[in-house]
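Q: Please design a sequence for this.
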């Protein structure tokens, strides 16, 4: 009788725990008032007690955006994502309300309501997104970066007609944040569009998932631009070894941070005959990031004076991080700036 009683208690506890955990499930709707932007977090609990989340931005026609991490501690919800540089921290005040703070360069109050009644837009494929059948060949490729001990997964598009001389070829290098091979963002797939156009013009194109993203292995969050340059170099070595490539016509196309990485790779590899930079940095990176952060602050309603003050602090911290070797030196210097 004692064993049966114990089993009954355990069953109640397990069922109660699952019920409590599932209380977070659903679509939680909020609005960033300063930007007049709706935001939705879609939460789903697993049997092991973990929480997964995706994010919708209906006003930007973006839906189902995966976030890096989501977790629950007691009555509080935490969400973070490195790609969009966002985080959310909120406390559930009742079954249908979470009161919290959304952060993207600055802290913004955000009230979430579960399953709030509203008309949900359906994401539509962009008209420019290539749709098969294609007049060229596609190959799924896996490339080893021996220096980092990781593998990169990508798509190689090859003109259908063999010319006997080898085709010119380009490698597409993505911008900042963990990007898939199509550089997918807000429903757009710019690298898929670019690869489609170039291959139709007789150019072999290789685009690949960033390390730690999609089917590529490795850790994105701890990687630097130097690591990404090593990845691009591994892809370059793979292309150079193919017989259908004209080795005198291999180039790199870099977008955003990729416009920083492409020159790094080209400077160290004679195999690169040309580079194309799309919105690449044209000023020192610390100055660029400072300007970008100040612009974000302004767009979110911060005054000109406050945005500029933030920019000055941001730049000082970045310079400290660059100019000091040890974490202790960096921490001490940052404390002095804060004082």
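A: Design:
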């Amino acid at each position: 009788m004692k064993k049966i009683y114990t089993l009954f208690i355990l069953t109640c506890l397990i069922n109660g725990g699952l019920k409590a955990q599932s209380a977070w499930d659903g679509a939680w709707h909020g609005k960033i008032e300063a930007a007049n932007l709706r935001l939705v977090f879609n939460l789903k609990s697993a049997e092991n007690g973990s929480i997964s989340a995706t994010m919708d931005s209906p006003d930007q026609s973006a839906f189902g955006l995966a976030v890096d991490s989501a977790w629950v501690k007691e009555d509080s919800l935490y969400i973070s994502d490195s790609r969009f540089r966002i985080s959310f921290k909120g406390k559930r005040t009742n079954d249908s309300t979470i009161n919290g703070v959304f952060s993207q360069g600055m802290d913004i109050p955000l009230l979430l309501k579960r399953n709030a009644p509203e008309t949900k837009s359906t994401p539509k494929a962009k008209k420019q997104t290539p749709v098969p059948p294609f007049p060229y060949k596609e190959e799924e490729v896996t490339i080893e970066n021996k220096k980092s001990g990781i593998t990169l997964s990508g798509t190689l598009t090859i003109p259908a007609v063999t010319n006997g001389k080898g085709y010119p070829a380009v490698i597409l290098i993505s911008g900042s944040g963990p990007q898939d091979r199509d550089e997918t963002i807000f429903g757009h797939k710019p690298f898929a569009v670019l690869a489609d156009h170039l291959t139709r013009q007789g150019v072999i194109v290789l685009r690949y998932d960033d390390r730690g993203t999609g089917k590529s292995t490795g850790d994105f969050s701890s990687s630097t631009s130097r690591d990404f340059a090593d990845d691009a170099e591994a892809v370059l070595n793979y292309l150079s070894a193919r017989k259908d490539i004209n080795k005198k016509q291999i180039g790199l196309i870099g977008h955003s941070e990729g416009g920083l990485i492409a020159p790094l790779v080209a400077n160290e590899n004679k195999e690169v005959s040309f580079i194309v930079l799309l919105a690449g940095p044209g000023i020192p990176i610390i100055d660029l990031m400072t300007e970008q952060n100040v612009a974000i602050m302004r767009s979110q309603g911060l005054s000109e004076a406050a945005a500029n003050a933030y920019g000055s602090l941001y730049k000082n911290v970045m310079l400290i991080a660059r100019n000091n070797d040890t974490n202790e030196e960096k921490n001490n210097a940052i404390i002095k700036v804060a004082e």
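Q: Thanks. Anything notable?
A: The CA atoms of residues 254 and 262 lie 6 Å apart. The domain at 22-114 is CATH 2.40.128 (Lipocalin).
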